[in-house]
Amino acid sequence: MAASSPRNPPPLRGAENQDPLSEMADEDSDEGEDIFVGNSNPVAESFQPDTANGEEPADLFSEEETSTAVNSSITTFKSNGVHSDNENDLFAEVSVELSMENPSTTAKTSGAEFTPSLTLSATQPRSMEQLEEEKDEDSFDMDVAVTNPEKIGDGMNAYMAYKVSTRTTLPMFRNRTFSVWRRFSDFLGLYEKLSVKHSLNGCIIPPPPEKSVVGMTKVKVGKEDSSSADFVERRRAALERYLQRVVCHPSLLQDPDVREFLERDELPRAVGTHTLSGAGFLKMINRASDAVSKMTIKISYSDAWFDNKLQEVESEDLQLRKLHAVVDSLVNHRKELCGNTAVFAKSMAMLGNSEDNTALSRALSQLAEVEDKMETLHQEQAASDFFILAELLADYIRLLGAVRGCFEQRMKTWQRWQEAQSTLQKKREVEAKLLWANKPDKLQQAKEEITEWEGKVTQYERDFDRISVTVRKEFLRFEKEKSKDFKSQIVKYLESLLQSQQRLVMFWEAFLPEAKAIA
Amino acid sequence: MTSTLDDSEKEKARSVSVDLNNDASLLIDIPDALCERDKVKFTVHTKTTLSSFQKPDFSVPRQHEDFIWLHDTLVETEDYAGLIIPPAPPKPDFESPREKMHKLGEGEATMTKEEYTKMKQELEAEYLAVFKKTVQVHEVFLQRLSSHPILSKDRNFQIFLEYDQDLSVRRKNAKETFGSFFKNMVKSADEVIISGIKEVDDFFEQEKTFLLDYSSKIKDSTARAEKMTRSHKNVADDYIHISATLNSLSVDDNTALKKHLEKFADLFEKLRKVEGRVASDEELKLTELLRYYMLDIQAAKDLLYRRARALADYENSNKALDKARLKSKDITQAEEHQQQCLQKFDKLSESGKRELTSFKGRRVVAFRKNLIEMAELEIKHAKNNMALLQGCIELLKSN
């Protein structure tokens, strides 16, 4: 792993020892190609690790981004240090844990891998939490991955294409495993479609990653440096997390657009996304929700619940932003430390060459090598800081924006109901006036309008109740997902820190005898 | 703020120069120091069995400038031209923590009370570390003198240790400033001289080559090491902010996440203490080691310069003698002068060889000690970190 590899989470142990997959046919034909060897039915739990899994393909793309290398990469990805030679399963880690028969469950080495938060060994009984989830979500079996970013075309018309692979046992899909190629605007297009349809119901729709003119331009003009590789990797990981959140959502999963996105070979090019990116949409929502929150609305005691939650969301948003800024600062400082260590290592090497005492000279050169290794450690750690921690925070800052949007939708629905009520009231007043003024022909029309508006009031009240229920449900679901997500990412981050320290100990322990040998 | 360093701390602190202060006939230490604003007042404590001193046990207050005065008088003493004069201790530099303290004050409004308190504590610790460091380097300077067979007998050294009035501190007045400036100019001319001079002795030839090269490399390494340890401190400081923000997050959270965040915040707080220690140990064992020997090598180079000048003087005196013989004028004078130069040169060469050889040994021993200690500390801290991390991971997973 050279110092020049792009920033990404530390590679998985044992990743190097995998046999490359035998020819993986490109893309969508599933015949004979077994990207996924379906294991016994993984249960709902298979979801949670998704976000953890999301990071793994990252390593592979640090090494090579050509489709030929993909084969070995996919394999290394799935094994995660679990040495299973015969399973070419993209989601092996997920299924490995849950399947009772899988022998590789026990082969896991400790500490050094990304283990999803729910680690079940063959012998461990399921915890209460997991059983509860099994009840809530009936046999969801759905895994998606976004891999293999490939640059298509040249110059300013170039774009990155990403492979979206799905594995599922849900009957609504034509096949059990399949993949398609999508570009960034396709993801945005999906979001737009889902927003249009579901945000009115109070659904929390996961927002996609933001557009980035600067980042993409660099990629387009073919700048083959680590920052554009970083950018692509960052985007790939974010797109994967985005999709995972979408398919995790029980209602969204049912949406035919989602199905089409995952399954259909050629997707009509999404238009208008150049103006409407996730961020732009969110900005709209935020502005509107600010306006709404200024209105004082107290209708029933249950509204206190919504008020409280909205306030919580807003203060959480502030804190997350603050935390994100600090983590950003940490990433930068670590990168700085990395650079300074590298420079120091070189300087130490020169000093060692200069030193005339042989043993000391050797020790100084060894010290230079240790510091070189430290530089790599710092670099990997900075990548962990970024890809695990910072991106998690960024995701949730965006998600909180979507949550706010939901609340705002509910408010709008309430407003509409109130307005209908006041319109109805006005119509009744008109009717009363007409009665008194005795204008029978206009009276008929007035009565019709009253009926119409009575209908609307009932409708809108029902809408409001319904959206309130949905928003509440969505919010609770969101909080649960958030807890799981954070916990699994925190554990992952800590494990990367742990691995870092372990290697540190190794390096210095190797150096110690050299120092002692000085005479 | 006063600081009393107990013996074990001093044992640990005194790392750059080994085997000092072993001779019971003259024991020197700085048991405490006072810091007022910019000025540090050291208490120099001497215990001696030598009759040349008036009392067997006594202390005097001294300022940094007094140490500089002592150093400079030693350098200017002709008799010591053949010795490596221990480098003067660097001026106490509280710039970095003071600047940080200032920034902290400015940013106080943006952080929580706990965060502010922690940062303040961290800065106070840094301040204390600088303080301890400066006490240590001043102490080492005196101890190098006291362990040197010749320098320990210096009259000015004795005055420094004993004179219980305020030394009429010969701050660098205008004349002396000019004098030192002139000296520095002469020194750069010296560099040209010694690089150009034809060396008669293999030993010195090798030493010259070695020292010139090593000197520039170690200067570079010192600067780089300093930058590296400073980055390390920045990372440790970031951990404080992360821990504080995580705490705020957990306070507001009412879900299952609350406990996780608390544990995470707590972990970061513990980790940053370890990282802070890593950074400061690195600084002490690595950066300070390099810095000290950078200065020491400069002192060794100075010795070479003086010897080279003596050689040049000798060669000039030879030429003068030849000229005198040709002119048959002032021959005796020229002969005498030539003899003097030769004597001086020989004395310098002999003493210089001794000094440089022992310097080499001293350097190797100090490097060995410090590198071993640094490696051991890195391992210790990393294992500490690992234990903390493993504990937290288990806690989180078991939940």
Automatic annotation (TrEMBL), chain A:
Its membrane topology: Peripheral membrane protein
Keywords from the UniProt entry: Acetylation, Cell projection, Endosome, Golgi apparatus, Lipid-binding, Membrane, Phosphoprotein, Protein transport, Transport
Superkingdom: Eukaryota
Record keyword Acetylation present: yes
Keyword Membrane: yes
Alphabetized Pfam families for the sequence: PX, Sorting_nexin, Vps5
Region annotation (Disordered) ranges: 1-70, 120-139
This protein's name: Sorting nexin-1
TrEMBL record, chain B:
Pfam families linked to this entry: PX (PF00787), Vps5 (PF09325)
Protein name as annotated: Sorting nexin
Gene Ontology MF terms in the entry: dynactin binding; phosphatidylinositol binding
Gene3D superfamilies on file: Arfaptin homology (AH) domain/BAR domain, Phox-like domain
Upper taxonomic lineage: Eukaryota, Metazoa, Chordata, Craniata, Vertebrata
Domain PX, chain residue ranges per copy: 1-167
Keyword Transport: yes
Gene Ontology process terms (BP): pinocytosis; protein transport; retrograde transport, endosome to Golgi
Lineage top rank: taxon: Eukaryota
InterPro entries: AH/BAR_dom_sf, PX_dom, PX_dom_sf, SNX5/SNX6/SNX32, Vps5_C
PROSITE patterns: PX (PS50195)
Listed GO CC annotations: cytosol; endosome
Keywords: Protein transport, Transport
Family: Belongs to the sorting nexin family.
Function in brief: Involved in several stages of intracellular trafficking.
Keyword Protein transport: yes
Organism listed in the record: Salmo trutta
